[in-house]
Amino acid sequence: MTVLDYAIYLAISMIKLFLFSVYTDTAFSFGFFILNFASVLVLSSWTLLLKAKTRRWVLFSLLFLHSTLIVSDIWYYRYFEDLLSVMLIADVPQMSSVGGGFLTLVAWKDLLFFTDLILFSAAVHYFRNQTGTLPRKNRIRFAGAGFAAGLVVFTVPLAWSYLQQEEWLVDNPISNMREYYQLGFWGYHGADLLKGAASLAESNGLSADQMDLLPETLSEIEAAPVPEELPNVIVVQLESYQSSVIGQEINGTALTPNLNELREETIYFPNFYHQTHEGRTSDAEFLTLSSLHPIKSGSVYTQYAGNDFNGLPAHLQRYGYNTVAMHAFERSFWNRDEFYDNIGFDEFYSKQDFSQEGQIGMALNDKDFFSESIEYISDLETPFFAFMVALTSHTPYEFPQDLEKMELSAYDDELVRGYYHTVHYVDEAIGEMVSDLKQRGLWEDSLIVFYGDHDSGLTQKGTAMAEDADADNVVDLFKLDHGVPLFIKTPGSSSGEINENVGGQIDIAPTILDMVNIDPPYMLGNSLMDEEENVTVFRDGSFRYNDFYYKPDLTAPIGSGTCYSTLTEEQVAYGNCKDKVEEAAEQLRISDLIIHENALEKIRER
Questions:
Q1: Which of 101, 158, 230, 312 is the 20 to 30 Å CA partner of 405?
Q2: What's the maximum distance between 2 C-alpha atoms anywhere in the chain?
Q3: What range does the domain containing 71 cover?
Q4: Is 239 marked within a binding site?
């Protein structure tokens, strides 16, 4: 067989794509196999035009590049459950500062994807006498046939989807993984590359259908009356803090004793979730400050920092608040310096403004960070809004042995031990912070919020953390992976309560404004203090509503998925979730339009 080397290349390529689905636990149906096979033909059939010796080296190089991209996608998927995108280029500078956490995604078994180079070389050498160069006319015929067959098989389903007006194709797709299942591995990356190139061009503006999703006008918030009394507002974002650690005991020792006690004098929200995506910590900040969703690829902070978001800091400024942000790391990390300035912070205290000793992990330890931050805000004119971003419990959870207080020898996973040690330490830091605020007279009459930014990344089924939480079904794993704590101390209050309302980080800003009696600007979130039943939406189109959790089937068009009861943790009739599926998708589309098109500014200009 003259083109046996090419046949071997095709077989190895498809095996690798199948292994990719195994490694990532994603679907790989027969139709998906055909789609991927067609795209490989389209991309590689041109090599049949080459002479045999040249073709072998080209195919070898293609296999290497293919393996490199697959392994990169696997590493990315392990953390984000999503695929790489060219839009992430803007986030590359952030990777150098979190290298330790990135290394936790790498496994020795990943090297299996590069053994194909050895297999291909060996096979080509063994069959070298059975491969050769076709006559020029035959080469053109074979290459053309392969390309044409692949193109037809690949494009026919796309044409049908377009004719059916499927939303993933004709509208703004809300999930990269839905595009992956509809386009295949190479189709997804090809389409992503084209969209990345198109994004460099100026926007053509909003279509009529897109404008219909947005409000016609924005309220005249500048003319709103100022309440007579405005409390100070202190918001503290806790790194990688899951709600599963609240109330948890290990060997009879409370993991978070101070936060456990804090439930006695604050409002605690047990049904509160993080809605972050690929931007993780920066996504949590963005959700909290703007009440909009994160984008589906990368971070708003690095891609759209100059947009008009009219967020919480700028809105509080209108009512006379002094607004400050505090984070003991590099000013430019996640492009915070530009974003904070644009969204309305008067001052940003960063690494250069804090002590340079006492580092744990990436930055100054949280005890000193909170203490020094309180020193800064104590000198501010009131009312003030202080936004503090903690960092000690950041992956890879490196913690000094001499500071360890928990007995965790029963855990084999070093990451889990490190996580629990840092969580316990941060809890101590919060206890000291609360005491400091009380001593300075800043606790009693301030509105104070503590919340977690995202999960630990250690919540997969079968892990030690999942076992600690007895999480072995879809609902339990959802709660473990998305649940983060939210504590709100209202001005003048000294007693605690449990608020069972369902909500997410997108609701924090509206809740704060509601509590200080200020009407919000345009925000997608809702106050958690009202009687409304909110739809808490996640970036993949899943959502929590009332006593139900909806998990979409990303291999099918929007509207295909499974509805679960959060009470029984069992699958229930789809009708219980049906009415909110499109509402959830539309909320993501609206948020994307506002961000990608800077739509709030355009609405004001109309």
A1: 101
A2: 90
A3: 4-200
A4: yes
